[in-house]
Amino acid sequence: MTRYVALFGAINVGGNRLSMADLRDVLEREDFEGVETVVASGNVLFDHEDRPTEGLAEKLGYVVREAFGFDTFAVVLTRDALAAAIAENPFTDDGEEKLVHTVFLSAAYDRDELMAFVQSYAGPERLAPGTHCFHIDYVEGGGRSLLDPAMRRAKLKMPRGTARNIRSLRRILAKMDS
């Protein structure tokens, strides 16, 4: 068995309310073992037979749609992939833990397109591409950030993504290591 983390998108936002206890129960009935949630925003640790993370992500999305009736997706990572995403974030050393985020994407993206956007964006946020994600430092906070609207106006061809701050990612990694 391999230990994985599923980072769900669209859970407990936009009306898609779901208790983590209900999510754990459904996943346990679907042959996911050692199911634990970390922080109440759709972070699920589980054990499963070793298989490609894309297949697990599809299975998780399907299970949640069938059980709870709303569309979601999951990005599934091994412990090493999560640690690598944290390590490659260039803003962890000088940014605030709660303001430095990694956006995990449901599919590959065009790094050149993102870099062109980064070069043209004049906001205070700092952005950097990652391996299967990208990184943001919301220097002045995310609440009033104009980054998301600017990315929509630029019509970036980005797949669905789900963001976690570095504090949460470190907590998840510590839980995977315990």
Automatic annotation (TrEMBL):
Pfam families: DUF1697 (PF08002). It comes from the Bacteria. Gene3D superfamilies: SP0830-like domains (3.30.70.1280). This is DUF1697 domain-containing protein. It comes from Alteraurantiacibacter lauratis.
